[in-house]
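Students often ask what a 'structure token' actually looks like in practice. Rather than answer in the abstract, let us consider cysteine desulfurase, a protein of 513 residues. Its sequence is given first.
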Amino acid sequence: MASPANVALRQVSRLPSRRLSSSSFFIRTASHFRATAAKQAARRCYVSESKPDKAQVSIDTAIRADQKAFTAQTGILPENAKMPGTGMSADVMMSPAAGILKQATVMDEGIRPIYLDMQATTPTDPRVLDAMLPFFTGLYGNPHSRTHAYGWETEKATEQAREHVANLIGADPKEIIFTSGATESNNMSIKGVARFFGRSGKKKHIITTQTEHKCVLDSCRHMQEEGFEVTYLPVQNSGVVDLKELEAAIRPDTALVSIMTVNNEIGVIQPMEEIGKLCKAKKTFFHTDGAQAVGKMPISVDKWNVDLMSISAHKIYGPKGIGACYVRRRPRVRIDPIISGGGQERGLRSGTLAPALVVGFGEACRIAKEEMPYDSKRIQMLSDRLLQGLLSLEHTSQNGDPKRFYPGCVNVSFAYVEGESLLMALKDIALSSGSACTSASLEPSYVLRALGNSDESAHSSIRFGIGRFTTESEIDYVLKAVKERVTFLRELSPLWELVQDGIALDSIEWSQH
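Now compare that with the structural description of the same chain:
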């Protein structure tokens, strides 16, 4: 079997010679590869005591040691050496986190649009990436392998991440079930509870609202096909559910109430504590889609009497492809798993966990909890600045309750402007006219329609998402650009001319051809 040093040497030697900075650098680099591989081979000849608490690796120390060894072998500082065939400096290759971020910064500068679509996804926090990278290479053990150090070290990391997720919502770590994201968590909660309690035939009713995320609505429709009855509660013009209507809708055979915490399109915050008390009094399980709320506002599942909560990592500056479902243990919530297999995650969600994603999720939750007071104040300040500027334009209005909304989600209607046309005119700003999951549809937002907005109003709405890395200068640029382009598009509209002339559009009788 070929040694790592020889393999690396052959790979580097195949690169075109014109890309090498010098032949002496190539020789020194190859020697460094051989020396490093020899040291690693020597280290692997010894067997240490196999105990879980001994399964620790300091990645930062290993990176610094590699850099010192490279300098000692070649006499060249890593930042001054170019790696053959890549154009990257050696310090980039030795410290992937720093290198990738450095390259991304260079790529982003002056090229990509300003990002204000934080409800669709958030950029990965560099600290999250730093925490994840070791688990793509050296720490690659299966966290479910209980017989050796490789499994122990990744299991310890995943359990620590589970604690970070639990601490963010005031839960017990044992109540956190890792999933692929909030969509899976929503499916697991709704279908799992309904199927478990529906087997007896005593509880065959589900309640949700008309403004829920599409995956919740589709899960409920799926349960209708299985014989369940679903009540889709309307919301008030503010987007907030009417508690009296909810109380009247709960029946003795209601198995589950599912109402999202923060709406993904208009940012409206539902009265979670009051809903939780009502469900507890009616002895009905309460599920909430917390994807847009977790990490952005204080949450206590016990205070809210929440029985199940869906969470997504990439909404809080973590990686995509990982999320969690909070499932209360006392009193125990019984659900039928929708994925069967090895019995991982308390038997509720089988499948091997991805340690890198789980660790990144946990780190994102840790940072969110630690920096929530600062982030909240800063996002509130940027939101006030944005809203004040947007609403200073005539014939603009905010969608949703202006007093009960998450400030990082601002949804505004610009009358007499087609929303898609405005998005096309704002190509230098990444915005959305609604949920990313339904952005391919030309239909007006069902959320805005549920608020009582007309098709025209719904079509003229834009969602602005503000996050941790949004700057004041970006907000100022967006305000200037929106004002200019809204004015330009309105001047192209014949309806705008009529409005400027004081003609009420409702009074016009349109002829049909």
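One point worth highlighting: The chain is about 45% helix and 10% strand. Ask yourself how you might have guessed this from the sequence alone, and why that guess would often be unreliable.
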